Amino acid sequence: MLEDLLSGVEKSRFVLITDAAESCGRHFFMNWVINVAKRCDRVVLVCFERVPEFFLNWLPQDLQEKIIPINGKSTIHYPLKDDTKDLLFEAISNALLKTRGQSAVLIDSLTLHMLLRQPPSTCSTLHKLSTLHGVTQVVAVIHRDVHDTHTCSIVGSIASSVIDIHSLSGSRHTCKIRHCRITGKVFKTTERFSIDYNFHIKDIGPLLPHERPSQSQPLVKSDPMAHLSFNLSLTETEKQARSQVKLPYLLDDSGDSSNNEQPSNARIIYHPDDVDDFDEEDPDDDLNI
Question: pLDDT tens, 266-275?
Answer without folding.
Answer: 788 888 787 7
